Description:
By secondary structure, this protein is an alpha/beta fold. It has helices at residues 2-17, 41-49, 53-63, 88-100, 130-148, 163-180, 195-208, 218-237, 248-253, 256-266, 302-314, 332-341, 378-385, 387-395, 407-411, 418-435, 453-463, 465-475, 479-498, 506-530, and strands at residues 26-28, 37-39, 71-77, 81-86, 114-118, 152-159, 244-247, 270-273, 276-279, 290-293, 319-325, 349-354, 357-361, 364-365, 403-406. The chain has 20 helices and 15 strands.
Amino acid sequence: MLINQIIQLLNDTLNNLDFPQKEIKVSPSKTPEFGDLSSSLPLMLAKDLNQNPMDIAKTIQSNMNVDIDLINEITISKPGFINFRISNNYYYNILKEILSDNNYGKTDYGNGKTANVEFVSANPTGPLTVGHGRNAVLGDVVSNILEWNGYSVTREYYFNDAGRQMRMLSDSVESRYFEELGKPFDFPEDGYEGSYINDIAKDIINQHGDQLESGDILFKKIPEQNIFTDIKKTLKGLGITFDEFSNEKTFYDNGDIDKLLEELKSKDLIYEKEGATWFKTSALGKEQDRVFIKSSGEPTYRVPDTAYHRNKIERNYDLIIDVFGADHMDTYPDVLLALEALGLNTNHINVLMYQFVTLLRGGEKIKMSTRKANFITLDELIDEVGADVVRYFFIMRGINTHLNFDLDLAADQSDKNPVYYLQYAHARICNIIKRNDAKENVIDYDPELLKNELEIDLLKKLEQFPIIVRSALDSLEPQSVANYLQETAGKFHKYYANCRIIGEEKELTQSRIALIKATKNVINSGLSLLGITAPEKM
């Protein structure tokens, strides 16, 4: 990558000058008239060398072994910056690289490494919500980025088919079952009130008639099966499938929970108080202890989640990623603390916490209640605006940012819609190539004919793609890819508006076709990472 090449050049120069070694940082110049890239290295060296930074900059400048195919000009600026203007030849070579490799920017960084990404993990109590949708898309795109960089990824779904929520689901379905049969039956307080409950009750009647008695196991099994089938169907509609499903109940049945509690007890980290079981987190640096098992005998999430993560650690993944909503903020640190107390390494566990989603229509917030089933399901959202738009909108903001999902904007078929704007860039390029009757692989072109400022600007943006993807890998936040694609589409649209791509000059036309084909390749790769289609016409 370009920045790495400049850093290496500066390091070599420091060695030749016998200057102290520093962690060199090179970044895009804040003052473009000075150059494309800039480094404050002279300022960092001033104290060690006891020299004026500008004098140090001049010394470095005059001693650099410049590759004319890389650097066109080196300048210095106050108070001690060294600036680099990159040669057009470098960008011409990037163009050749992109055209020769449809996987430009792909790395083998994770080759031989395994990763587990756990996401969605909604219990089968009802349809997936828009909140689950943000979780689903985030987890899937992160998985794509890992795979792009060579990791072998296991997508995992963890759920609980026991506990209070499932009992409430069973009781709700049972009540509607008898209601459908005309037999009065009290609906449970805080029961699930959605129409899907009535649909499940009708399905049970169709299968088993009026033969079921209160408490029948089918009131649990059939709702769980039906809802899970619908969940998988919804996720498939977003292009998401899973490699592994883990069930919380497994860790009770196989004794892992009991083993966990015994080990923590043996370390004097478990105690009883007021009928509840407590985890002594205060002994591990926390302000207060946490309840592990309530006085009712019902465990908190901390207990099975700790056993589950221990299981994942024992599966020897190089990287473990959890995608959680902000409601897990208080829980997951205790899980990591318990694992560490058991002597397990948690350094390879990354927790991605995302903020909640608000749906807007007409500028107004749509009020929702999951329990009352007063909400727009993920299925309904996909039906209304399309899977591509749903996926893009869910990852176009940083995970620490509350997401306002504007339904009016999402449904808009104009440049105001960022998904339309981006996909239209790809489709427009495909149309231009088709009109020109260009071959799939453009060979006969002269990159040096691409001298227009907008052409060089577009090439500079294409060159950044590997850097952006690597940044997304390091941060495990995909919004940088979405933002980059928007900027790339913007530069293409501007280029198209100001430069005639297909003209009378055949040689120039072919060179410009080569440029837009490279743009198409990069946009296509970026859209693939986001799990969004790249249409050839719109």
